[in-house]
Amino acid sequence: MKQALIIVDMQEIFFNYPQNYLFDNEQLVSNINKLIKQAHEKSIQVIFIQHTSPNKQDELFEGKNDWKLHKNLLISSTDKIIKKSKWDSFYQTELLDYLRNNGIEQLIFAGAQTEFCLDTTIRVAFSLGYQKNLLFKGTHSTLNGVVLNARDIISHHESIWNNRFLTVTDGQPTL
């Protein structure tokens, strides 16, 4: 089964300001880089999704420092970067066409934020027919919310996703 690793919104905004730090952000980057390295070694396509605001005043407007993909990610020239403007990585982007044109059958998800763009993208992927997807614990994160802290948001979403929208896997990320 042909796979693709999809990394959602791992952008500098989550690393530049303490109030925006993703939960366990250093371990998160390390775990995602393990997946990227394995994907590159196994010729699995790596796709970075990059939130891009149409508003020039927004910190995620194309070209601004906060908009850039995180500098510590192991990005290769063979990786695909797809810009999105909504929570759904498929909405008005080339993602679905790219996956279909490249015969991708299984998606491996990672990134941020758990309850926003990652959750929306996972659910839409399932609805579009990608129903054998994977997610490794420790490869996605979020910020503390008003009602739940980041750890609880992550646990809650993993419990909803697992065996419904994808398979959540424990242990070291291994492709």
TrEMBL record:
User: Its domain of life?
Assistant: Bacteria
Looking up InterPro entries in the UniProt record yields: Isochorismatase-like_dom, Isochorismatase-like_hydrls, Isochorismatase-like_sf
Can you provide one Gene Ontology molecular function annotated for this UniProt record? hydrolase activity
Residue ranges of every copy of the Isochorismatase-like domain listed in the record = 4-131
> Is Hydrolase tagged as a keyword?
yes
Q: Which UniProt keywords apply?
A: Hydrolase
Q: What family does this belong to?
A: Belongs to the isochorismatase family.
* The protein's name in its UniProt record: Nicotinamidase-related amidase
